[in-house]
Write a structure and sequence with these properties.
single chain, 217 residues, alpha/beta, Rossmann fold, five-stranded parallel β-sheet, 7 strands, 49% helix, globular, binds adenosine monophosphate
Length: 217
Amino acid sequence: MRLVFLGPPGAGKGTQARLLEKRFGCRQISTGDILRRHQSRLTPLGEQAHHYMQRGELVPDALVIAMIEGELEQSPSGWVMDGFPRTVAQAEALDETLARRGIPLHAAVLFNADRKTLIARLSARWTNPRNGRTYNTLTNPPLVAGIDDQDGGELVQREDDRPETVAKRLEVYDAQTTPLIEYYRREGKLVQVDAMRSVENVAHQIASAIETESPAW
Ligand code: AMP
């Protein structure tokens, strides 16, 4: 299964991608997580990306596209792209790469979400920087505040989950990523889910949407 997850920050794409990975073994490719790992390892890419990420802006297409090519090499049996593509240029590059390899994309899943809820969700989000697992202090708190239930390590609030950066990220999503909705609709790949429901409900919506769209997967 090869899927693209589209939707504003805070809509739950990462949570659903991790669930699909656990349940069906299709690898989560989160460009945000990969870029954050580059930053913590202080690689040249991480240093270049930091400048954009801390402002809530997009990292330039050329950098992200080169990075994704390498990721595809490591995931021959299926993946979920969480946070890529975010621009039409990135979607075109992905289409070209997949066409060259002769592997089709099964669907682009659009997470529909209400703005006010997104802002509340992002400001309540705590992340495990070691593996990207997230908690929400309102809806899905850790057993002990600030500590990951599974590895016992510290949780952090992402620098770009601060209110002013969140507003910028939503603005960037509207301007640069929403044209992808039409892009995938034209390709006949778009399916939509109501991302405001529970984690289990959204997982169920995704499974049924994909089943209808691509019964053979
Ligand atoms: P995310 O974790 O998906 O919310 O991404 C965090 C930040 O990483 C974004 O605000 C961008 O600065 C950067 N980023 C992640 N994915 C992409 C992408 N596909 N294109 C450009 N920038 C990206």
